[in-house]
TrEMBL record:
Keywords recorded for this protein, A-Z: Exonuclease, Hydrolase, Nuclease
Gene (UniProt): recJ
Organism: Roseateles subflavus
Superkingdom classification of source: Bacteria
Taxonomic placement: Bacteria, Pseudomonadati, Pseudomonadota, Betaproteobacteria, Burkholderiales
Annotated ranges, domain RecJ OB: 477-573
Similarity comment: family membership: Belongs to the RecJ family.
Official protein name in the record: Single-stranded-DNA-specific exonuclease RecJ
InterPro entries with a match to the protein in the record: DDH_dom, DHH_sf, DHHA1_dom, RecJ, RecJ_OB, SSDNA_exonuclease_RecJ
All residue ranges annotated as the DHHA1 domain in the record: 367-462
DDH domain span: 76-241
GO molecular function: exonuclease activity
Amino acid sequence: MSTAPTLVTRDAPPRAAWTLEQAGFTPLLARLFAARGVRSADELDAGLDKLLPPEGLKGIEAAAALLADAVQAGDRICLVADYDCDGATACAVALRGLGLLGARPDTLHYVVPDRAIHGYGLTPAIVELALPLQPQLLMTVDNGIASLAGVAHAKALGLKVLVTDHHLPALVEDVVQLPQADALVNPSQPGCGFESKNLAGVGVAFYVLLALRSELRRRGAFEGREQPRLDGLLDLVALGTVADVVRLDANNRRLVAQGLRRMRNGRMQPGVAALFTAAGRDAARANAFDLGFALGPRINAAGRLSDMTVGIECLLCEDPARALELAQLLDTINRERREIEAGMREQAEAQLARLRTQLETQTPPALVIFDEDFHEGVVGIVASRIKDAAHRPTFVLARGADGQLKGSGRSIAGFHLRDALDLISKRHPDLLKKFGGHAMAAGCTLAEGGVQPFREALTAVAAEWLDEGALQRTLRTDGPLPPDAFNAQTVQELDAQVWGQAFEAPLFCDEVQIVAQRIVGERHLKLRVRQGGLLRDAIWFGHTDPVPEQARMAYRLSLDEYQGQQRVQMVVEAIV
């Protein structure tokens, strides 16, 4: 399905690279960091003292005072979590942190929505779900900023509400409207001057705990004893931050680096250690890829197909043996998720192929794919896969457990998905029952019979907003890899860094000669290539079509170990 991308080499300003070299970085790392906008070594300092101070977050003092009052009074606190990895880790961080800071275990509870039954966020239904726990304070994590009705319902029942979130607020007639909570902490709310707008929900929860500790210290709560340390929660913060694919700005990179450091040193929660075991990964060599593609999906699978309580309990568990049981259950659920996803993706690709045939092999500027057999818990993943392959804004729709048509969309650069839905709602007032999201990811619920009208409406907006250049997939590379850098030491050096969203892992590009190629594992292309006169091993996962003898290849470096021997190979991303 995929078409060859345009390969573009990142610009690495020589002066910035030179400055980083003078600070002690290797020439290769200095060039890579400079190409990602780093201008000084200070931006790469992962020390805890370099984290932005909590005081910059609007509303955090009120949140800290609200929580301190509750903790000291012994009030019952109920967390309202979310059903993804960010929400699960945020819930675990908040519960563990509140316990460390003096909240009695019997006062701490949580509820988490069922994706198919309750939908997203602090809805009135979730408030009712929490009532049997007799909470006096509801605290949202990774949700709540747009929960106008849910917060109002909780307040009407006499509950105090603290909202901690990182999503965009609700728009009512194009005007931002915030919930009437007792306190609200969100770097994306109007008037918040916090330098990093990219905190994940778990990052916001961690910052609220830092502020709570300061407030309790001011009240003398730690007199005569050492104040609790919160850095032991950073493995969870790192996991949620990477899994939620937020931008890894300097502050987020520090949070992730600190969490990875704890994992590599064996100082992590039993549940995190168990997830490494269940995923077959070595925590001693933990990197961001492990969090985003091994641990995160196993937590997410619980919210997609089962009950996120399993994921949260794994992260809260103190017994290693029980934690491993839960991690293995999550692994089983994730295997089921992959099977469902594979079937849905195959059906989606078949629909796209038929559509291309109808349009004489041209792909429309936006895609809407629906099948009655699709599972609503996996539509977002499938939309992401199709978007990557076709390089088009893509919505995948399924019929939910409640019978409604629910869609999840993923977008490409230059097409703000939530704004597109907003425009569609204005042009076709009866088409969207509800919608929300961001520039690159959004969701919606359609009126019955709305699939084709929605497809036509989204295609029309995409045709207006996207030109031919925007519809051409571009892959940014770091240019050639120096020949003397093709070794295990380079791979280890690169793997030790924090890469991720908006701070992408190195992708090199070289002219190569294809010496041999064969299919392995039925779905992958194994290559032997000549690069600069030297023979190298390469593999292109998920690709089986033959490639030309002379090619320009974009690739990453990986290190395989077999029978005690280390072998460097190229992992192909594209060949043009």
